[in-house]
Amino acid sequence: MVRVVKKKSNPCSFFLDNRGRKGPKSNKTNRLTKYPALLKSSEGETLSPKTRIPRQQRGIETRDSILAAARELFSAKGFHGTNSKEIAGRAGVSIGSFYSYFKNKKVLFMEVFKAYKQEQIIRILREQNRQRIETLGRATIVRAIIESILAAHDLSPGFDREAMVMCYADPEVKEYHGEIERQINAQLVETLRQVEDRLRVTDLEAAAAVVSNAVVMTVHSIKIFDAPLPRDRLIDALAEMIRRFLFKDSEAPAG
């Protein structure tokens, strides 16, 4: 006859989890697996593990509405002053729909930022290619360069301001901004090559970087920081400085 010995239960088993630690068994892992929307970022924002790329017109329009709403709110309130729920509300979509298109607010910001920078490049190229640079006088060439960059920053001064803040705060934004700057400088180098025989400078890449930085800083002073001097005076002084920096003195001051 086999004797069956019953194993005594641990009276404290209710207070032990499966690793022998005190406390009720946690079902947090199961909840997070079953309900992915419970995942949170370091800022407490809900994270969506999957997003979809719209293929039908309605989905494309919804996604575009979210992008447009985000740009408006980022321009007015900044990245950190805006939350995903506000963006969804402005776009007229549910928060669930928002997360089906964008993983989180940062991913959305990067898409808005990249699209905005591409718009700026297109505007600069259009302005600089509108005239045959080699036929213009020195002052007109300089004005064309300045006006092309001014036109690019006319798109959205508010978003420009927030993009500049994010460049200092976020490495990913800074990296992409640097890539765009290199593209703009490369275009400016090509513009200068067309009048290279009239230039004082010999290092066109360095000259393009100096000119671009000078123009952008002046534009920011005008568009973002409410410059203490009138716009026209600042632009006139900037144009004269760049003309003297770039061009030989021997050329008659035509244009």
Structure overview:
By secondary structure, the protein is mainly α. It has 2 domains: 76 residues, Orthogonal Bundle (Arc Repressor Mutant, subunit A); 127 residues, Tetracycline Repressor, domain 2. 61% of the residues lie in helices and 0% in strands. It is built from 10 helices and no strands. It is elongated. The N and C termini lie far apart (116 Å). About 13% of the residues have low confidence.
Feature tags:
10 helices; Arc Repressor Mutant, subunit A; mainly alpha; Tetracycline Repressor, domain 2; about 260 residues
How are the SSEs ordered, and which strands pair?
Layout: H1 28-34, H2 57-77, H3 84-91, H4 95-101, H5 105-128, H6 138-153, H7 157-169, H8 171-193, H9 204-223, H10 231-246
Helix pairs in contact: 2-3, 2-5, 2-7, 5-6, 5-8, 6-9, 6-10, 7-8, 8-9, 9-10
